[in-house]
């Protein structure tokens, strides 16, 4: 699909010879574009211009009879990408400096919208600017905690998202200004502490109603806890934690970093538990949260270890768009 497009041409800084940070792998890009099912002649809105490579891929898919509109909050990237597209003769691509949350009204309706950045909801302007039966493919937040993202594919019918599916995946959080700090989540972090080992640990708690001193205490306790190894297969971490967040009924979801590992989990009134990416578990307080986690793991295994493809994507209307969640 992208064999005629020189990836390095688009993603390498001509002055330094270094890869531009806002670059995704060609394989990941190809997977996202395939999800969008783009056909010749379509109008496509791209959120997150980046290096310009993805717009070149989209331009190839829609052909000369189609059109690609791309927006990005980084003026330097926009200027660079626009120049490269001009040099490449892509006259059916236009690049704009704008906040992607608002889409691009001038150019709507779009047959496809594809996002390379993660909004906290499926933005209302994207839905409004979509043609009937249009497809949107984008990572988006699926729980009210940092880093809880999934790639959602949905159709737009009668001004609402429908026929939605999910798969694992994420890109940088959507912001109104260019991002310069990639070291921690940009939003929803309730506590950041320095551990005794000198590492930076943080926690994000759903609902964000926990007092700062309590959030600090939980963060420190999880960072100091000795992880229980081999609690789940690391290869199944994404699937299990998505199931956990989608079925949790007794506890408050959290995402956190212990300073040496990150993961998802939950708190109860007197305990907390965190499933780390390496398959280990950190717990603090009483045994209540860990007991609940064992029950969730047992149910997941009895169900055949369902992944994202087994989840139903439910949307809840919000003031600024549609909030997706996974249900099992």
Q: Can you count the beta strands?
A: 16
Strands across the major sheet, in which order? 3-2-1-4-6-7-8
Report on the biggest sheet.
7 strands, mixed
Q: Mind telling me the CATH class of the largest domain? A: Alpha Beta
Rounded Rg: 21 Å
**Which fold name fills CATH's third level, the topology of the largest domain?**
Rossmann fold
CATH architecture of the largest domain: 3-Layer(aba) Sandwich
What's the overall average pLDDT, rounded?
Answer: 94
Poorly predicted spans: none
Strand content: 25-35%
Structural class, please? alpha+beta
Distance separating the two termini: 34 Å
Count of DSSP H/I helices = 8
Query: What is the 3D form?
Result: globular
Helix content: 25-40%
Element layout with pairings:
Blueprint lengths: L6 H5 L14 H11 L6 E5 L5 H10 L4 E6 L2 H14 L4 E5 L12 E6 L6 E2 H5 L1 E12 L7 E9 L2 E8 L23 E4 L5 E6 L6 H13 L12 H11 L4 E6 L4 E6 L3 E6 L4 E5 L2 H15 L9 E7 L2 E7 L1
Helix pairs in contact: 7-8
How would you portray this structure in words?
With 328 residues, the protein is an alpha+beta fold. The longest helix is centred in the C-terminal third of the chain and has 15 residues, at 288-302. The chain is built from 8 helices and 16 strands. It is globular, with a radius of gyration of 21 Å. It has helices at 7-11, 26-36, 53-62, 75-88, 124-128, 212-224, 237-247, 288-302; strands at 43-47, 67-72, 93-97, 110-115, 122-123, 130-141, 149-157, 160-167, 191-194, 200-205, 252-257, 262-267, 271-276, 281-285, 312-318, 321-327. α7 (237-247) packs across α8. The protein starts with 6 loop residues before the first helix and ends with a strand. A hairpin with a 7-residue loop joins β6 (130-141) and β7 (149-157). The protein folds into 2 domains: 7-167, Rossmann fold; 191-302, no CATH class. The protein has a 7-stranded mixed beta sheet. The chain has a 6-stranded antiparallel beta sheet with strand order 9-10-11-12-13-14, sandwiched between helices. The protein has a 3-stranded antiparallel beta sheet with strand order 5-16-15.
């Amino acid at each position: 699909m992208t064999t005629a497009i020189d990836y390095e041409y688009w993603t390498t800084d001509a002055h330094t010879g270094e890869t531009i940070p806002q670059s995704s792998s060609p394989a990941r890009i190809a997977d996202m574009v395939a999800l969008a099912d783009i056909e010749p002649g379509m109008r496509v809105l791209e959120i997150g211009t980046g290096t310009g490579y993805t717009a070149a891929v989209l331009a190839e898919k829609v052909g000369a009879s189609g059109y690609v509109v791309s927006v990005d909050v980084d003026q330097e990237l926009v200027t660079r990408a626009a120049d490269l597209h001009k040099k490449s003769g892509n006259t059916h691509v236009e690049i704009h400096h704008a906040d992607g949350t608002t889409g691009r009204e001038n150019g709507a309706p779009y047959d496809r919208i594809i996002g390379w950045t993660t909004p906290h909801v499926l933005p209302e302007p994207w839905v409004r600017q979509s043609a009937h039966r249009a497809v949107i493919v984008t990572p988006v937040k699926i729980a009210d905690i940092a880093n809880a993202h999934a790639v959602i594919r949905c159709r737009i019918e009668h001004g609402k998202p429908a026929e939605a599916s999910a798969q694992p995946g994420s890109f940088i959080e959507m912001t109104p200004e260019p991002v310069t700090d990639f070291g921690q989540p940009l939003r929803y972090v309730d506590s950041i502490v320095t551990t005794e080992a000198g590492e930076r640990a943080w926690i994000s708690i759903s609902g964000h109603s926990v007092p700062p001193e309590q959030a600090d205490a939980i963060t420190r306790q999880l960072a100091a806890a000795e992880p229980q190894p081999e609690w789940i297969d690391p290869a199944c971490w994404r699937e299990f934690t998505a199931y956990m967040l989608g079925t949790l009924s007794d506890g408050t979801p959290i995402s956190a970093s212990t300073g040496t590992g990150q993961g998802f989990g939950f708190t109860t009134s007197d305990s907390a538990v965190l499933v780390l990416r390496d398959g280990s578990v950190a717990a603090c307080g009483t045994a209540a949260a860990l007991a609940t986690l064992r029950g969730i793991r047992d149910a997941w295994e009895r169900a055949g270890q369902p992944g994202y493809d087994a989840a139903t994507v439910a949307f809840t209307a919000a003031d600024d768009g549609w909030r997706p969640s996974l249900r099992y």
